[in-house]
Amino acid sequence: MHSVQGASMNAASLDPRLLSDYAWSAWASLGVPGWDRGTFAACVDVEALILFTATIDGLDPRLRQEALSWCVSNIDLISRSRIGGLLRNEGASQDGRWQGFASTLSALTKRPWPQAAGPAERIEVRPVGVRADDPQALALRTRGLMGATSRSEIVRALLLNEPGARVGMRELLEETGFTRKSASDALGGLELAGVVRSSRVGNAARFELRGRASLDDLLGPLPRVRESQRLLLRVTCALLRAAQDLQNASERVAHVESVRVASEIEKVIQAARPGRAADTDSLESIVTWCRGGLERALEPGD
User: Fold this and answer.
1) Contacts of 122 (CB under 8 A, 6+ apart)
2) Alpha-carbon distance 110 to 113, whole Å?
């Protein structure tokens, strides 16, 4: 791994318009009205998108209300346990924006949400349907088949890899956010059903889909961009939180903290992409990587 270089947190800024466009386009792919739903090219990660929307809460009040309406209308398509897992994997609690967002969802859905705290916002929600036919809504189709479970998330993750690719447990845990026991149980059930095949490479188990062509026919079409949106949004949120935390810090404190933030984020990226060349060894390169992923998700198809 390269040594991580520091930089001012000013370099970690991301265009608010890009963040808003990403969120609107992703939600439109799930059924939220008011945006061109044909502008998203990646597979929407439902829980990661919910956390991201809470993080950029102040950018667009209408986006917040539409996202809350979708969540209330389609609660059975959301895995609250996965949201809890994604939060735990970040190693720290979200800030008050998520806690308030979760508190509002708890009040609206009458169900507990991870880390809900503080007063709930009183808003008027309206029914929002889902659109599951677009390639970007692959997660909704796997959940329609298997529920909002670890099984459906594992199948989604494996489908987004190249045919024949064998994926390790660590990568699946990073992507899905479920516990090792939950993922192991799900993989055991999928293997019993003949959907997944396991093999060993050295001391590590690796997993691949069986009957890939049949699954492509059943759950396709697949999105054009198959990069992990969970990883992309995790890094984006980490950059945004760090930039906010240090906006009033001295230059020396900001520099020291930038080194720490960049080092932590690089470890996250490398853990999710084992064996790939390191291209995120400085804060500037992480921001560039993040911006590129957001822009690729919004690139129109041919």
Assistant:
1) none
2) 9
Cis peptide upstream of residue 112 (ω within 30 degrees of 0)? no
Best CA proximity match to 34, nearest among 42, 25, 43: 25
> Phi-psi region for residue 232, left (φ > 0), alpha (ψ -120 to 50) or beta?
alpha
Q: At a CB cut-off of 8 Å and minimum separation 6, what does 143 contact?
A: 77, 149, 152
Res. 104: pLDDT tops 60: yes
Is 135's pLDDT higher than 50? Answer: yes
- Band (243; pLDDT cuts 50, 70, 90): confident
> What's the pLDDT band for 192 if we cut at 50, 70, 90?
very high
CB 190 within 8 A of CB 153: no
- Across 239-264, b (16+ Cβ under 10 Å) vs e yields bbbbbeebeeeeeeebeebbbebbbe
Q: Alpha-carbon distance 108 to 88, whole Å? A: 24
The enclosing H or E element of 100 equals helix 96-109
Q: What is the pLDDT of residues 3-22, one digit of tens each?
A: 334 444 454 578 999 999 99
Phi, psi of 109 (to 5 degrees): -95, -10
Q: Is the dihedral of CA 148, 152, 158, 163 positive or negative?
A: negative
Show the tokens assigned to 136.
């970007």
* First-to-final CA distance of the chain: 36
Least Cα distance to 49 among 301, 300, 297 occurs for 297
For the chain, where do the domains classified as CATH 1.10.10.10 start and end?
135-219
Distance (Å, rounded) from C-alpha 13 to C-alpha 208? Answer: 38
Residue with tokens 């992507």: 175
Class at the top of the CATH hierarchy for domain 135-219:
mainly alpha
- Kindly indicate the confidence band of residue 39, based on its pLDDT and cuts at 50, 70 and 90: confident
Give the C-alpha separation, 190 to 74, whole Å: 25
